[in-house]
Design a protein that fits this description.
By secondary structure, the protein is of the alpha/beta class. It has a domain at 18-202: UDP-N-acetylmuramoyl-L-alanine:D-glutamate ligase (3-Layer(aba) Sandwich). 42% of the residues lie in helices and 17% in strands. It contains ten helices and eight strands. Helix 3 (57-65) crosses helix 4 (81-93), helix 4 (81-93) runs parallel beside helix 5 and helix 9 crosses helix 10 (256-264). The longest helix has 18 residues, at 233-250. The radius of gyration is 18 Å and the shape is globular.
Length: 268
């Protein structure tokens, strides 16, 4: 039986499949940072065998084919996630038929604190992510710390921690990754690079946040929403920073009305 904390998701979702007990994190937030105490042992049970038993590749194939956006997150915390991705690609994505002229659907990846994993594991994950580009428009999302960590593993030197230097680093990293979009979100702004351009957008700065744990997830969700609505790269970043900004300020996820109001009355 799903944990009660997931009830709002159950109320909205069309289908929910449980494959393991949830992990949980105790988050201690301070004015100058936060401590996250993760209890992640149950995530060791998430593997392709469990997913196959609970859902099955045919059902997953139908769900993926009918979805405008698919997201794979928490790679670092799930030890067998690379194995899961490999099976999904080999058994579901690669055999699927590509229709010429169709706009590819979107696939979003979030590694989630890859410093905890070895360079070998990270490079393997990046290789797997790039495979999906054959059938999807792939976006990889990173926070600023993760960006520098991935750049180091890729042997791409950073020229400093200024905004122009980070934009340059993101562009050089994206040039080495065969995916559509690379997304990086520092605290005060966000950067995105695709095949045509690299852009940045300031977020609404919240001097006294109600909560910061989960801000990156909200940013990613907002950016993906913008992409699904057909926004360009800059407007998708605006949607992302507005979503996370509202969450940090209020402690609540924004409704579509909340988001539209914030975008319409952008803070100066």
């Amino acid at each position: 039986k799903p944990h009660p904390v997931f009830q709002p998701l159950l109320d909205r979702a069309k289908n929910v499949y449980t494959v393991a007990e949830p992990g949980h994190t105790d988050a201690y937030e301070f004015q100058d940072g936060k401590l996250l105490m993760g209890k992640l042992t149950p995530l060791n049970d998430i593997c392709w065998q469990k997913i196959s038993e609970r859902m099955g590749a045919p059902k997953m194939a139908v769900l993926m084919a009918s979805s405008d956006l698919v997201a794979f997150v928490n790679w670092t915390m799930v030890p067998f996630m690379s194995e899961v991705w490999d099976h999904i690609y080999q058994e579901i994505v690669a055999p699927s038929e590509k229709v010429e002229g169709d706009k590819p659907k979107r696939l979003f990846f979030d590694l989630c604190d890859p410093q905890k994993r070895s360079a070998k594991d990270i490079l393997e994950a990046l290789e797997l992510i790039q495979r999906f580009q054959s059938h999807y428009s792939v976006t990889l999302g990173l926070n600023e710390k993760e960006c520098y960590e991935i750049a180091e593993v890729m042997n791409i030197p950073s020229e400093g921690n200024t905004r122009p230097a980070l934009m340059d680093l993101v562009q050089r990293m994206h040039a080495c990754l065969h995916i559509d979009t690379l997304l990086v979100h520092p605290v005060r702004y966000a950067i995105a690079s695709n095949r045509e351009e690299v852009v940045s957008f300031d977020g609404p700065f919240i001097a006294q946040p109600v909560i910061t744990t989960g801000a990156g997830d909200h940013f990613n969700a907002g950016f993906c929403l913008g992409q699904l609505l057909g926004f360009d790269l800059t407007d998708s970043l605006a949607c992302g920073v507005s979503t996370s900004g509202f969450y940090v300020q209020s402690g609540q996820s924004p409704s579509m009305e909340d988001l539209a109001n914030l975008l319409t009355h952008w803070p100066s």
